[in-house]
Amino acid sequence: RATQLIAMGIPFIATNPDATGPSETGLIPACGAVAALLEKATGFKPYFIGKPNPLIMRLALRYLNEHSENAVMVGDSMLTDMRVGLESGMETFLVLSGISTRESIKKFPYRPMRIVNSVAEIDP
Fold it and tell me: Is the dihedral of CA 18, 20, 21, 22 positive or negative?
């Protein structure tokens, strides 16, 4: 049904481009994998409203009445979490307890400001 709606001109909006996500049994397909399938089937590219689109962070900061200088992005994804944090002007912490590894960081042209093994290592 999604391919039909997209072909009819209904906006193709997705949350994020993550191809996989962690689960108790290992990595599983995530939103980006489904979006790629629909893009291939329809020829239409999705508009990602969530991470790494800085719009979502600007809206959240505005809602909280905060500035990016006073915010920190903590996440496990270089593709979405670190990119949106950097593009939004936030301090970034990459947590290695999820999908990213020290080796996978090398694939990206940008770097997180800090790398930690788990959120327990972050001082408030």
Answer: negative
What pTM value is reported for the model?
0.78
Return the beta strands (E) in the chain as ranges.
Answer: 13-14, 20-23, 26-29, 47-48, 72-75, 91-95, 114-116
Report the amino acid identity of residue 44: F
CA-to-CA distance for 88 and 68, rounded, in angstroms? 7
Q: Does domain 2-48 have CATH number 3.40.50.1000?
A: yes
Q: How confident is the model at residue 22 (pLDDT cuts 50, 70, 90)?
A: confident
Which three-class secondary structure state does DSSP give residue 92?
A: strand
**Fold exhibited by the domain 68-121:** Rossmann fold (3.40.50)
